[in-house]
Amino acid sequence: MSIRRKSTISHGHNLSQRRASVVSLYSALDPHDHDDDYHRLSRWFSVIFVQKLDIYHVLERQEGKRTLAYHLFVFALTLISLVFGSISTIKAWRPKLDAPLYYGELVLCIFFAFELLLRIWSAGCLGQYRTWVGRLKFISRPVIILDILTLLGFTISLGTGMKAGEFPTITLKCLPPLQMIRFLRVDRQLSSWKVLKGIIITHRQELTVTLVISFMFLITGSYLVYLAETSVDPKLNTGSFRSVADTMWFS
């Protein structure tokens, strides 16, 4: 049996052409070959490969309308969770929001765990992540490690309130940092941090001058407040500004 394999991905073509080339993988059979079962099996594997490529593109890339819609959806979920977590720290609102917050975090934890499994599975569309060693290489990426640690933290937090169906007081104090980390992980490619790094490197001289001037104003203002608020007689010095360090903290 002779099979003419076509190139699956070429750098000069767009995504639709890539999909067409992937679907055509193993599909060009010899005219004298009538093995329909093998033909269907080959096309089935080709379709699975295309699905992996699509899922990986949506989850790991930031291009296209579908990818933008998905990341906006995840951004909205994490933002709502962060807002509810902050409001639940108010004593007047806590009895009403304890149960909804707990079950909402449970749903989000299951959702992000399923998303993580999809990321690991779809990474097989790339040659460097196709084997088990490649999967371990993919999992060892800093972003994936952050996802795993965040999921582990939420799992432990949910386990502490499993019986009551709500978060204990101690867990509520640890919940906002986890929600903030999950909120920051929306930027998968770290593009915003790269832009910030570029700005710092480009304008490092201006930032250094601004830092020095700010420190000079801090010292001068603290000393003036100390002179104005401190009595001449040390025995009468009963105010809040008993030293320059106190005025610096106030400033």
TrEMBL record:
Its main location: membrane. This is Ion transport domain-containing protein. Residues 70-250 form the Ion transport domain. GO terms for cellular component: voltage-gated potassium channel complex. InterPro entries: Ion_trans_dom, K_chnl_volt-dep_KCNQ, Volt_channel_dom_sf. It comes from the Eukaryota. It is found in: Membrane. The chain crosses the membrane at residues 68-90, 102-122, 143-161, 207-228. Keywords: Membrane, Transmembrane, Transmembrane helix. It comes from Adineta steineri. GO terms for molecular function: voltage-gated potassium channel activity. SUPFAM superfamilies: Voltage-gated potassium channels.
